Amino acid sequence: MKIALVGIGKIALDQHVPALAASDDWELAATVSRSGRVEGVEHWQDLGAMLEARPDIRVISLCLPPVPRFEAAMQALQAGRFVMLEKPPGATLGECHLLRETADRLRLGAFATWHSREAAMVAPAKAWLADKTIRRGHITWREDVRKWHPGQDWVFEPGGMGVFDPGINALSILTEILPVPVRLTGAALEFPENRQAPIAAKLRLTNAITADFDWRQEGPQTWHIEIETDQGGLALHDGGARLKIDGAATSPAPDALAGEYPRLYRRMAELVRAGRSDMDLRPMTLVADAFLLGTRQITDAFHF
Amino acid sequence: MKIALVGIGKIALDQHVPALAASDDWELAATVSRSGRVEGVEHWQDLGAMLEARPDIRVISLCLPPVPRFEAAMQALQAGRFVMLEKPPGATLGECHLLRETADRLRLGAFATWHSREAAMVAPAKAWLADKTIRRGHITWREDVRKWHPGQDWVFEPGGMGVFDPGINALSILTEILPVPVRLTGAALEFPENRQAPIAAKLRLTNAITADFDWRQEGPQTWHIEIETDQGGLALHDGGARLKIDGAATSPAPDALAGEYPRLYRRMAELVRAGRSDMDLRPMTLVADAFLLGTRQITDAFHF
Question: Choosing a second label site near B242 at 20 to 30 A (CA), which of A3, A219, B82, B160?
Answer without folding.
Answer: B160
